[in-house]
Design brief:
By secondary structure, the protein is mainly alpha-helical. The chain has 11 helices and 4 strands.
Length: 319
């Protein structure tokens, strides 16, 4: 049993060189192998096999031992490197977290900066507009002051201007251009001045009755551009009574038809049932043009021409 324990506990790595050399010479003998020794003795065969394996192991261990030392050293170095790497990775994670935090702070700061810059730009724009408005109002103040003064002066002179325009509408129509100028420019204006009625200096009754826009609109509707035609149109659009047009060239009729358009009802006394058309036009609130009127007018139209309108309740009647 002691021999078996020695065999089990034998350390093959530390065989001295001299016994190993002697054992190797024994192993090299041709009969020293398991098969040969088995024919002699099983115990000897197994012991032979053990010796061969121990020597082989010793030889291999001597080759592997340095490598194992290197492996062990490499393993230790690897463990140290991995520990250092873990420290570095932990530090990297901390740095990355700090970088992410700083990046978020930077993004917030940039966003706030852009918002402030945008607000500042809007404020500068509003300031510029306010300066322009203030400068413009400064100029407007002067203009408004002059306008108020002119309006006050016009308010004083409006009575004479309206009187002159009213006389122009009521009485100027039958006369020629030269006589019209003599009437309103010399006779009527001087008479108002002599009576002490305020009147705008150099006032033109046509300017009171119509604006330049009105005149341009009339001319677009076919009205001739001469002064007399424009004055006649101002009288027609301003008079309170139904105007009578002596129009041999049909310029006035053409203008009225084009001005009113399809809403105009045209009637002549030679038409069948002309009276029904007149009544229908009045009832429907339309606009009526009677053409070809002679020096005498049918008496049935007298209430209409004189505007003899009577109101009964919510209805109006021509009687």
């Amino acid at each position: 049993m002691a021999f078996i324990d020695e065999v089990k506990n034998f350390k093959a790595e530390v065989i001295p060189d001299q016994p190993l050399k002697s054992t190797q010479e024994l192993i090299d003998l041709p009969f020293f192998n398991y098969e040969t020794m088995k024919s002699k003795s099983s115990a000897a065969a197994y012991l032979t096999n053990w010796v061969v394996n121990i020597v082989t192991y010793n030889r291999l261990s001597k080759k592997v031992a340095p490598l194992m030392v290197k492996v062990r050293q490499a393993s230790e170095d690897k463990a140290v490197a991995e520990a250092a790497l873990e420290v570095v990775l932990t530090r990297v994670k901390e740095v990355e977290a700090k970088v992410a935090e700083l990046s978020a702070t930077l993004a917030t700061a940039i966003s706030e900066k852009e918002a402030v810059e945008l607000q500042a730009a809007k404020c500068l724009e509003k300031l510029s507009l306010a300066e322009r408005l203030v400068n413009g109002l400064a100029d407007e103040y002067k203009r408004w002051t002059l306008t108020v003064r002119d309006l006050k002066d016009l308010g004083m002179r409006l009575i004479g201007n309206c009187l002159l325009a009213s006389a122009f509408v009521g009485y100027i129509s039958p006369f020629t251009a030269q006589i019209r100028i003599d009437l309103w420019k010399n006779l009527w204006s001087n008479d108002l001045a002599e009576r002490g009625i305020p009147l705008s200096e150099g006032i033109d009754p046509l300017a009171v009755l119509a604006t330049e826009g009105d005149i341009a609109s009339w001319q677009n509707e076919g009205l001739p551009a001469d002064r007399v035609s424009v004055e006649n149109a101002a009288v027609v659009t301003s008079c309170a009574r139904w105007p009578l047009l002596i129009d041999p060239q049909l310029q006035g009729v053409k203008w009225i038809k084009q001005r009113v358009g399809e809403d105009l009802s045209v009637v002549t006394f030679t038409m069948d049932k002309w009276l029904q058309k007149v009544i229908f036009s009045i009832q429907m609130g339309g606009q009526l043009l009677i053409e070809g009127v002679s020096s005498e007018i049918d008496a049935i139209l007298e209430p209409l021409l004189s505007r003899a309108v009577v109101r009964r309740g919510r209805s109006s009647f021509v009687i």
